């Protein structure tokens, strides 16, 4: 199942790794590898990227950051190919992402003279950006009967799907709400009527996709190898302004 019907797909700048992700998923289709195994793979890749950042191996860090992004897409692709969607995988993916994001920023703080407050605020900005992207994207997917494992409003523990345990869903949903709840509430407060508005145009969704984690990791990777490591955290802090710009555009025109 595709995330969106063909006629409503947009250029997702954060999804550049999708072709390779599909290749990996197809290669694993008839194996015992599960989407959870692939998620564990991207966690390992992310940790290796952090190690390389701290050690100054920036080109290796780029490889592992991009590979992490590819595997982050591959786990969902494998779930769709094997027709084994799960809330366990959905929440494990998200919990792993936010923890790795925090560690990415801490590692960049460690190798630069950036103030700790800037690091903290930049991380909050990064998560708000990603939350807005996911909010608009999930609304779009739900409107057109796309992949609905993700929900517009994560207000209650979902019932486990076939092949997963309710206990695992409960634990991971609890972690998800603890780590993401505040960001979800802020974005909802800023644009609570988004799901009642018009379908967002493809150009706007493409712009908002710069908030997607894949694109965020690409920015980090490019800035590392360009010798701009000291500007990474300030960039994400300042770029958070665009959250309010995109919401304003959505409210005024759509």
Automatic annotation (TrEMBL):
Q: List, in alphabetical order, the Gene Ontology terms for molecular function in this entry.
A: phosphotransferase activity, for other substituted phosphate groups
The record's listing under Pfam families reads: CDP-OH_P_transf
Q: Coiled coil located at which positions?
A: none
Q: Which UniProt keywords apply?
A: Membrane, Transferase, Transmembrane, Transmembrane helix
Query: Per the UniProt entry, what are the Gene Ontology biological process annotations, in alphabetical order?
Result: phospholipid biosynthetic process
Q: Which PROSITE patterns match?
A: CDP_ALCOHOL_P_TRANSF (PS00379)
Give TM segment ranges: 38-60, 98-126, 203-225, 231-249
What cellular-component terms does GO give this entry?
membrane
What is the top-level taxon of the source organism?
Bacteria
Q: Which family does it belong to?
A: Belongs to the CDP-alcohol phosphatidyltransferase class-I family.
Task: State the protein's name.
Answer: CDP-alcohol phosphatidyltransferase family protein
